[in-house]
Amino acid sequence: MNCCKKKKMSGTHPEPTEPKLKIMLIGLTGVGKTSVMNTLLGIKDQKQGPSPSSQTTECKMATVQRGDQELVIIDTPGVLNNKKSEEEVKKDIAESIADAALDGGPHVFLLVMRSDSLSEEEKEAVEIIQKIFGDEFKDYTLVLFTRGHEYVPTREEVEKFEFLKKFIHGDDSFHSFENNECENVKGEEKEKQVSDLVEKINKMVAKNRKQNRPRYTSKMLRKAQEIQKQIEKKMEKSEPNGTKADILSKMAEEIFTGVLDGQWVSLVNNVFEIVEKKAKAKRA
C-alpha cells in the first residue's frame, strides 16, 4: 500500500456525523480518481502526491484532517483496465476491500466519471462494480463527475442514463468536480468544491446512520474482518506458523464446493500481509 502523510486543513463544514470519514474512490481507468484524491488532500503541487497522469495499479490510502473531521481516502485500481483481465481487476478491488475492512468499512463510495464522456464503457464498469459490491452498494454511492470546468450535467441529464438512475436520489447524490490541475480553479473556489462535496457525503452518512447502517458492509467485507480476527488471535497465541496456510486451506475447500469465488484467496493474502506488518510494527 502506498500511504501519503497525514495533512491538516482548516476547511469548515456542517457538524460532521462521524469523526473519521472513510471515502473509497472507484471508477474506470483514466477518469481522474487520483486527481480527485490529491484535491481532497489539499495537494497543490502534483509532484507531492500521486501522479494524476498515471494509472492506479494498487490501492493507495491517505489521510487528511478537515476541521474536526478526519478523511481517510482510498484510491482503487481502475475498472476495465486495458492491461488487466476482469478477474485481475476484481482481485485488485478485493485487496482494496481488505484494506478498508481493517478499520471498518467505507462510509461512502465516490463513483468517479468524466462529465464529458458517458458511454457503454461506463455502463459496463458500473455493472462490474455492482457485481463486486452487491445491491447495497447503491445506498453508499455518490456519483462524482470530473472535468467540471468543461461541463456540469444537470440532474435531469444524469437520470437519462439508466445505469446511473439507481444512484440518484436527489441533488445531493451527485457532484461535479474541477480537476486539481485545472488552472481556472484556485484558492477559495477549489476549497468550496471540496467543502460542498464533504457536506454531501456527511448528509448521506447521516441518512444511513438514521437507518442504523452508517458504513457499507457486505459478505466480502465481513469475511475480510473475520479473517483479520482469526489471524490476530493466532498471532496473540504465538502461532504464526501455518496461520496463512490454515486459512487458505479452509478457503480452498469453500471455493471448490462452489461457496466462494477465487478472488477470496487474494483477499486472504492481502489481509494476512497487512495484519502481519502491523504486528511486526508493534513488536519493533
TrEMBL record:
This is GTPase IMAP family member 4-like. PROSITE patterns: G_AIG1 (PS51720). The keyword Plastid does not apply. Belongs to the TRAFAC class TrmE-Era-EngA-EngB-Septin-like GTPase superfamily. AIG1/Toc34/Toc159-like paraseptin GTPase family. IAN subfamily. Signal peptide: none annotated. Keywords: GTP-binding, Nucleotide-binding. Residues 18-225 form the AIG1-type G domain. GO terms for molecular function: GTP binding. The lineage of its organism: Eukaryota, Metazoa, Chordata, Craniata, Vertebrata.
